Fold these 2 entries.
Entry 1:
Amino acid sequence: MHSNYEIDEMISAKSIAARVEALAKEISEHFEDTDKLVVVGLLRGSFIFIADLVRELDLPVEVDFLEASSYGNSTESSREVRILKDLRGEIEGRDVLVVEDIVDTGHTLHHVLHLLEARSPARLMTCALLDKPSRRETGVKADYIGFEIPDEFVVGYGIDYAQRNRNLPYIGAVRFTS
Ligand code: IMP
């Protein structure tokens, strides 16, 4: 476990806000005919992103949350995905947008989509703030992506390193110093 690290700003709060607004516009246009969009945030990393995103959506939305385990307190992704907290509501026949903080190996999103598809939603789409395509181990790709980033461990704007730094207003790259 690394104990010393520095954080270098990678994406500013201003850039995030502008990108969230643009994504919300695209999503609002795509779902403009819906009266039943359920926005599903994957806990815990998406909590700030989903809060900002839904406030920019020009649609009637419901918000629900699902928690899947992926990372422990390490920087390596686990391939085993467990559902720790399921949705409160039914999604059968409904339009669903899954909101994820980062798609890394893709195992989490792949597993969650498989689970939700089995519940027969009308439309099932995905939005990830960050995408690390070079790390992908599955065929999954989010429909809406905020930023493509290199293979770096990042924190902030809801994303943690060992449960810390979620409250940073920007996305920063972690630089281990020892
Ligand atoms: P995947 O299953 O490998 O795609 O991992 C997805 C999850 O791993 C994300 O929702 C994050 O919670 C976590 N994760 C992936 N990359 C990072 C990172 O750079 N910093 C912090 N958490 C990460």
Note: The radius of gyration is 16 Å.
Entry 2:
Amino acid sequence: MTRDAVLPIAKEEILRQEQIAREVKNRPDCPRTYHIITYGCQMNAHDSETLGGILERMGMRAEEERDAADLILFNTCCIRDNAERRAMGNIIFTKEIKKTKPELLVGVCGCMAQQEGFSDRLRKRYPHVDFSFGPGEIYQLPERVLMALEGRREEAFKAGEDSTLYEGLPVLRSSPFFAYINIMYGCDNFCSYCIVPYVRGRERSRGMADIIKEAEALVKDGVQEIMLLGQNVNSYGNDTNGPRFHELLRALGETGIPRLRFMTSNPKDLSDDLIAEMARNPAICPHLHLPAQSGSDNMLRAMNRRYTRKTYLDRVRALRAAMPDIGLSTDLIVAFPGETEEDFMDTLSLVEEVRFDSAFTFIYSPRSGTTAAKLPGRIDPDTARDRITRLIAVQEKITAEVFESLIGQEAQVLADGTSKRDETQLTGKTGRGIACNFEGQAGQIGQIVPVTITGFGSNTLKAKQIM
Ligand code: 5AD
Ligand code: SF4
């Protein structure tokens, strides 16, 4: 495939933005505090850490109370209609805050802001919103704030860059022992239901040396777990003809990071090399999130997923042959256009056959601009709700059975906090990615603690420390 040149943002442009950041910081009207509201996936959560890092460099500090902040930034998601509606409701509401606090700045970024025509509509219809930019323009935040302060409204709402790759932006990590690393941006798959390729642009992989450098710095900082992010991590390196994903994982294992995870994997690109590396590399957690979307070949074809039920199940078998204790999780969409009761039953039977630890289940939501949005055979809302309810019930039963089978087994839990209900209980995640509570000391937060599993609740395991 030929591709438009993916231009890394030049070092000079990053330096220019840093210069603007200093300029804005010295203005008397520069906001002193900020509040970021994040919707959507881990990619967005990590983007918000970068936005926070940039704002801190501009001399601002985080304000926990939204209504008390001088700058409110919405990092939006447009994957489904409800994500959009929630964000829009809150964006509109900031008009009320601005009535009593006219100096408040309101910014909108993330995937919604990259949608065709969205930023123009925002600029024209919502005068209380001050600026917007897309996910490929995060590095421009200082300049957008400056434009807003100077009332350069047209420029402050520019959106559209998607072929960018940047290095060297500050990140304000939200945890001292857990960190995200972006290994690639964008997506080339064009699953027929999905808006992501339109808002996050073409696939572009970061250089391996940059990723390793970032990981080494995190290890030095005491980080215990790194989550690698990309819309389709399995195709890392395809665009650059550089090292492939399994080679990157091998190199990352050598940085000394205790735990490595990654998401999201597309079943069609899950290579034997990757499975072998997962089995060999002791840092890689025994968990894989492998979105199936449907168990029906008709639906998979209509979704343009480019694998079949059979090849999906083959991959699951290969994973379990190499790693008998691996935990699998998945994403499933019900009520895709044209989905018959029989197609839906195929999804139920796939879930029964694979026995996922957990599944994220969604009712299909038409996204304008995608090919599925034009398909006939929309499923009525009652049928859609009935199907998702049945699917959730089947998965809940399987989750409970899987959890039950884990009782008596040992696990390693990265303790991440204390339980809200009981201070003597620590919370954390097992290597398999399941939430787990156990009795422990606050001083153990941030450590990987060996436990024996003793029981379970609806979404969590209960365990006892191995002393
Ligand atoms: N409608 C419903 N679910 C969707 N997803 C992506 N696009 C849509 C849509 N239009 C789901 C997929 C994907 C997850 C992140 O969101 O299951 O894996
Ligand atoms: Fe993440 Fe996709 Fe939502 Fe963007 S649209 S925030 S990439 S889930």
Note: The two ends are 56 Å apart (CA to CA).
